[in-house]
Write a structure and sequence with these properties.
4 strands, about 5% strand, alpha+beta, coiled coil
Length: about 325
């Protein structure tokens, strides 16, 4: 069974492109500027519509594209070939004259430089050594030597030692990193403990300075001659209620015989406490964690504010103790021992 070959070349009966067809193809291509297959499809549709009106054969998209490429290649080539031009010195139709104007004159110039010895550098170049190509025998010997060195027990032992040493170094680095992380964690915990201890110490100092001086300072701020040391016993009256409440009215007996007198030793001051339990503060062994939980947030804020006002007074000696207690009438008694 024989296979028929596809026919090549121009289709039988196809007409050549005319001038008007080429002009229309160039105009459509210039207007549409096709870059790919879709653009050339649009150009072919418009071209076929035009040729129907002018009784011309229609063309396929690929044929129009190939024809435009041929026109473009012809336009890019130079219009002239190898032209022959007349020589400028052509004397055809002229008469020879006897003058010597056309003769070539040879002019020799005299040398003005002095003759002497000219020194030049001489470079010695050595010939390159011929390279000997490695033969098959040499390559085989090299391969055998490499195999023998790889299978040598000493080489294997050395390689194993290097691997074990590198593994040991990696393990030691990992161990040191773990130790560093553990020490860093321990250092952070110690810093937290130090911060907590410092805060407790500051609170203890606040209680130490404010346990007696907050009432004493408010009672004696208007005294003409303030006492350099706190009195042995001092009493002040506070409005005793969890929430803000009006003051208790004093009894007639209290008006005639007041508990506080404006003197360097005794005076009166009013402030709010919400604790129902007596508070005992020792200047040497006071613990803020034992005293503060018995107060609410407002009393604690009042105590800290009063302690800040009393920070300018001298501290209590370590051998003195302040006892704060409350009686049935709502009075707080502060005794200095």
């Amino acid at each position: 069974m024989t296979s028929q070959k596809a026919a090549r070349g121009r289709t039988k009966g196809a007409k050549m492109y005319g001038t008007s067809e080429l002009v229309k193809l160039v105009e459509l291509t210039k207007a549409m500027l096709p870059l790919a297959g879709k653009g050339w499809t649009v150009v072919a549709e418009k071209y076929n519509k035009w040729v129907v009106n002018h009784n011309l054969p229609d063309r396929k998209t690929k044929a129009l594209r190939n024809k435009f490429d041929v026109i473009l290649n012809q336009a890019m080539d130079q219009p002239t070939g190898k032209g022959e031009h007349r020589q400028i010195s052509d004397k055809k139709g002229s008469k020879d004259s006897s003058d010597s104007d056309d003769d070539v004159q040879l002019i020799s110039a005299k040398l003005t430089t002095k003759k002497g010895t000219i020194l030049t550098k001489l470079y010695k170049t050595e010939a390159a050594l011929p390279s000997c190509a490695a033969s098959c025998q040499n390559q085989a010997n090299t391969l055998m030597e490499w195999i023998n060195s790889s299978l040598d027990p000493n080489t294997q032992c050395k390689r194993d030692e290097e691997c074990s040493m590198s593994s040991f170094q990696v393990m030691m680095l990992q161990n040191m990193q773990n130790q560093f992380n553990a020490l860093q964690t321990q250092l952070n915990e110690e810093q937290c403990q130090a911060d907590i201890a410092e805060n407790n110490l500051q609170m203890e100092r606040l209680l130490h300075c404010g346990s007696w001086s907050h009432c004493y300072r408010h009672c004696h701020h208007s005294s003409p001659t303030p006492s350099p040391s706190p009195p042995k016993s001092h009493r002040c009256r506070c409005s005793y209620s969890p929430t803000p409440s009006p003051r208790k009215s004093r009894n007639p007996s209290q008006k005639n015989n007041p508990r506080h007198s404006h003197s360097p030793q005794q005076s009166s001051a009013d402030f709010n406490f919400t604790s129902h339990e007596p508070i005992k503060v020792d200047a040497a062994e006071s613990n803020p964690s034992d005293a503060l939980p018995t107060m609410d947030s407002s009393s604690r804020a009042n105590l800290e504010a009063l302690a800040g006002l009393a920070s300018q007074l001298p501290p209590i000696p370590s051998n003195q103790t302040l006892n704060v207690r409350q009686d049935s009438n709502g009075w707080y008694n502060i005794d200095n021992h």
